[in-house]
Amino acid sequence: MSHWLLDVIADKRTRALKEAARAQLFGRMTQEAPALNTELLLEVVAALELAVLDLDAERLGPDDERLAFLHKAATDAFRLMRVSALPDAQMAAATQLLRASALAVIGNHGAEAAQWLRTLEVEQGWPNLPLNSDNWGERCRATLADIWLRLMCGKDGDDRDVILARVSTLRAEQQELEQNYLASLGGVEAKRSALELIAIYHLTKAADVLAHFITGGVEEDSYQVQSVLDLHFDGAIAACDTGNLLELGPLTCLLARAATQMVEGC
């Protein structure tokens, strides 16, 4: 079995992976960034992400074969994203790092992604996110990206404490700031933003549950934890579907799949 999208991009995928391998080799030899075919990399990454989401959602063919295609597509997407330049916009940069890390976990390269994120943090710092923005929507998006990036870094007690503190603060400030934020928006935009917030609240709670579990802070078994995670991811996906949230929806699906594999790996 294969997937039609993987067949369509087969040649471009090979070329893009060669570009990525060349960029990695170049990076070991010099501090200068190599010239890359950015358009090719972005096109192949987008196709691989779609294939990963489709292979995860649709039970095509025998499970072992389907999962092999899914893991390889996710791994290749991570390889390409790792050598791609980050957007200038800080929130977009954080989202790209999160997508890449989730794909790495899905491809069974979570440890590699964790090391990559740690290296980025030391060498150039993570994106500067508006964690204290007066705009409640911005603050929620920033918190979501920050806590999930910390989760992708692995079993670190300090990161767990930061994650739990961020989620607790968000919950405490929700009642005071959410109403004014939604009131400042009009009609359709307010409804869509409310659905986005619902999805984000589910995802932050899922991060809270996962942080406790992977750092040994709870005694529940993996089945119980996965059931709770499924509840929150299903709620987030439903909100994204209703609100037609074209960026958060696919990211939520990637995080859901990555979270499942993180639980299975503990």
C-alpha end-to-end distance: 30 Å
Order of helices and strands: HHHHHHHHHHH
Kindly state the number of beta strands: 0
Content-based structural category: mainly alpha
Low-confidence segments, given as residue ranges, are: none
| Portion of residues within helices | over 70%
DSSP strand content: under 5%
Rg, rounded, reads 19 Å
Descriptive notes:
The protein has helices spanning 4-8, 10-29, 38-57, 63-83, 90-106, 110-123, 136-152, 157-183, 187-214, 222-243, 248-264. It is mostly helical and 266 residues long. The chain folds into 2 domains: 4-123, no CATH class; 136-264, no CATH class. Helix 2 (10-29) crosses helix 4, helix 5 (90-106) packs antiparallel against helix 6 (110-123) and helix 9 packs antiparallel against helix 10 (222-243). The longest helix has 28 residues, at 187-214. The chain is globular. The two termini are 30 Å apart.
Which features does this protein show?
266 residues, mainly alpha, single chain
Secondary-structure map:
Layout: H1 4-8, H2 10-29, H3 38-57, H4 63-83, H5 90-106, H6 110-123, H7 136-152, H8 157-183, H9 187-214, H10 222-243, H11 248-264
Helix pairs in contact: 2-4, 3-4, 4-5, 5-6, 5-7, 5-11, 7-8, 7-9, 8-9, 9-10, 9-11, 10-11
Describe, in short, the structure shown.
By secondary structure, this protein is mainly α.
